[in-house]
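> Could you send the AraC family transcriptional regulator prediction when you get a chance?

Sure thing. Input:
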Amino acid sequence: MAVHSCHTIFAESFFTRNAGLFEPYLSFVGLGDAVLNSPESEIPLSQYVALWEILGQEVSPTIGLQVGISTRSQELGAYGHAVRSAPSMQMVLRCLSRFIAVLTQGTRVDIDEDAKTVALAYQITDPAIVRRRQDAEFSIGIALSLFREVTQNPTLTPIRVDFEHDAPADLSFHRQVFNCPIFFNRPDNRVCFSRDILDMPVGTADTRLFQALEPFLEQQRETRAAATDLLSQMGRHIASGLGSGNVSIEQVAASMRLGVRTLQRRLSVQGLDFSQMVEGVRRSLAENYVAQSDYSFTEIALLLGYSEASSFSRAFRRWHQLTPLQYRQRAKA
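Output:
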């Protein structure tokens, strides 16, 4: 399995099923049509999340939740098949949390329990990805859809849902989907159920299939999780050093308290390329600064380590086929 120089998510059959939705907007985030027909394609997480945000602007402000609640386990590759075939609800929850890196890096899924409730919490951990409402609503929508699928209870209802983003102006679709209290500006995104859910039988359980999938998923998890840890650490150090100019591997190694050769060896083991990592962090931060801040483009160029605004503008057009001004206008429309 190839390892990319940024956090990635596998296309799986999900992109093929939703080709008609995604295809008109792929070029907006620098993606090609190959992701629509190649389940093994790895999509940079920042571009994947940016694609959702564009769909939220161009198609529907609730598109993430609409697609999430209609997504089924078979569209999520081996990860989805393991969740579906797990022999108990405890194992369903364990799979959702433990093996998330097999599907997507730069995220976390935690299971929190107390005496009365069980909650699945989801959050992007990549610090460079800030605009992510649609991904959050898509992911919580999928979680509810999967719980309904494995319990074979299409009316299964949570007791509470939290989102980390601001409340949308229109909550009618959210209320229709969840039919429970919904809270915004929370620390993370989560869907909560009564503990009774743990006693529900898994109607889709297939013990033999689960036993066959689990060793494969463990192997993939170890590989992907190791790369995720290194990517996250380096991403933070690259981001903090961009404003001082060109970020070198020597600077990053020093800030991580590692020798240059040690860092180079770790990159080599994971198949990572330092210059591509710097490019990926620059791109993610550029998208956030342009869309979310009131910084001038000259200020953004300096924050990202460009010597002049024209160099930044050329790079931005290469990434998005849009000027920074066009991208800002689209984001704020």
